[in-house]
Write a structure and sequence with these properties.
single chain, about 525 residues, alpha+beta, Beta-Lactamase, 4 domains, five-stranded antiparallel sheet, about 25% strand, elongated
């Protein structure tokens, strides 16, 4: 340190720590120790200073000059140089820290503040820690000995983290959907206004409970299963629809999204949960399903009676009283058949969308099953003047499946193929198998389906254009029902890239369907 080194605070501390009054270090020893300490402090970029509170002068280490960007050749007043570069807003912090220490309210001077760089272009963060080592008879401090360190990187990281936390808090508080921090045990750590409004609890009430307590009993098992998958690292996040119970007993539906936050070393810290209120959507879905079910069931009986009567009329009066009546009967029958098919599709779709589609797996002769489906589809084939032929390598293929579901899917595929095929063309049903899969292909000679529509065609009520609905007499549910029927058996229904005219659908069934 600059000034009289034999009277520096570092030397004073070394003297205080001497092992014995009779074993005092020599001047040479003291010089070596001081040089070593000075080197260590400089390497750690820690500046050391002593401030004389009586004269206002100070002495500093070489590291201080380096920290302050003051060269060894410059003759500066250290205290003045330091003071003039303090940020105006931080001067009061430094004065308060000094006053608190001198008055005995603080054990030491400890303060963080901003200091302008020597070129005036930047502000650096510093930390000063200091204590007095000399006192007068009245107990007044005569000096301050301390360190000064550059903590700019650390402080900027803290400020960035604080800003990030404030942004997250602001985003969370103002988010239009329920957002919460949840502990690993399920305790609510923090919630926003939207979450409180959705659940019907105040933030304080939520903090005194956990998510398990307000989860509808039937939904808790699936929720906890997903949480365990998160903790085990099998998944990074999950989403599910679940029910919550409000204080008044009302059931609320929410779409829950959960992410597990981990520390840098991978240890789980807490969950971030978001819940979107889907109660009204669920109610509308329920009403829609109820409406469809009632309409379909109520209409099925009279439509079946009308179509049946028209069928009998054709049998009883094959030629009819006159040609006009005969044509009217045919028109009525076509309309009745179309309405009956639409009602059956609506009922099947109701089961698919409601998850009530039943599964009855049994070993079936696939060839016979396909043959029956082709026979049931003969009427629509005849109507569009199209034929169907099956291509196979063996006469019998025993396979475990649900015959009713497979028949349903095949008839929809055959019906579609007939509707979109040109007259006098042939629909091909190709059956192959290997040790793991059974493949059934239904290929037509129609205009085909563009590659960019291969997934859209499986969406309910989807039509490539409005004219398809009128000309081809469908409501757009057949492929949706077919895919769900095949998936129920653990298989898949897809459309193959044909590379030319025609559409080719592929049913793939595994050897051991999912139960």
């Amino acid at each position: 340190m600059e000034r009289d080194t034999l009277n520096t605070p570092t030397e004073w501390r070394l003297a205080e720590q001497s092992p014995s009054p009779n074993d005092k270090p020599t001047a040479t020893d003291r010089g070596l120790e001081l040089e070593t300490i000075e080197t260590a402090l400089a390497a750690a970029n820690i500046a050391v200073f002593e401030l004389d509170l009586v004269s206002g002068t100070s002495s500093v280490s070489g590291a201080w000059r380096q920290l302050m960007d003051v060269s060894l050749s410059e003759d500066v007043d250290f205290q003045t140089e330091w003071r003039k570069r303090i940020h105006p807003e931080d001067e009061v912090l430094i004065d308060r820290a000094l006053t608190d220490y001198v008055s005995g309210r603080a054990p030491r001077v400890a303060v963080e503040y901003r200091l302008r760089s020597r070129d005036g272009l930047d502000w650096r963060w510093m930390r000063t820690d200091a204590e007095a080592t000399k006192w007068d008879a009245q107990g007044n401090a005569l000096n301050l000995v301390g360190t000064q360190r550059d903590i700019t990187d650390k402080k900027r990281a803290e400020i960035a983290l604080q800003d990030s936390e404030e942004q997250f808090r602001s985003l969370m508080n103002n988010a239009p959907i329920g957002t919460a921090l949840v502990s690993l045990e399920g305790k609510w750590l923090a919630t926003n206004a939207a979450m409180s409004a959705f659940l019907g609890y105040s933030e304080e009430e939520l903090r005194s409970t956990d998510f398990q307590s307000i989860t509808y009993e039937d939904d808790l098992e699936s929720d906890l299963f997903k949480v365990q998958e998160l903790l085990s690292g099998e998944i990074d996040a999950f989403e599910l629809d679940k029910r919550y119970v409000r204080p008044d007993g009302e059931i609320m539906w929410g779409h829950l999204c959960v992410v597990l936050v981990r520390s840098d070393d991978g240890q789980p810290l807490h969950y971030i949960s978001q819940v979107l209120d889907i109660t009204e959507t669920r109610k509308l879905d329920f009403l829609r399903n109820e409406f469809m079910s009632i309409v379909a069931h109520e209409l099925r009986t009279p439509v079946t009676a009308v179509v049946g009567a028209l069928d009998m009329l054709e049998v009883v009066c094959p030629n009819g009283p006159n040609e006009k009546v005969q044509n009217l009967v045919k028109i009525a029958k076509r309309g009745g058949d179309r309405l009956r098919t639409a009602l059956e599709d609506l009922l099947d779709f109701e089961q698919v969308s409601g998850g009530t589609l039943s599964l009855n797996l049994t070993e079936t002769n696939i060839i016979e099953n396909i043959g029956e489906a082709m026979l049931k589809s003969q009427a629509v084939m005849d109507q569009h003047k199209v034929s169907a032929r099956m291509f196979l390598q063996e006469g019998q293929i025993p396979w475990q499946c649900d015959p009713a579901l497979l028949d349903k899917a095949l008839r929809h595929l055959l019906s579609n193929a007939a509707k979109f095929s040109p007259e006098n063309s042939e629909v091909c049903v190709i059956v192959t198998r290997d040790t793991r899969h059974l493949n059934i292909r239904v290929k037509d000679a129609g205009p085909g389906i563009p590659d960019n529509l291969h997934e859209k065609i499986f969406q309910p009520f989807w039509q490539q254009d409005l004219s398809d609905t009128r000309d081809q007499q469908g409501i757009g549910l057949g492929l949706t029902i077919s895919r769900q029927a095949i998936r129920k058996m653990g298989g898949e229904l897809s459309i193959e890239a044909s590379g030319g005219s025609g559409a080719e659908f592929l049913i793939t069934l595994p050897t051991c369907p999912l139960k």
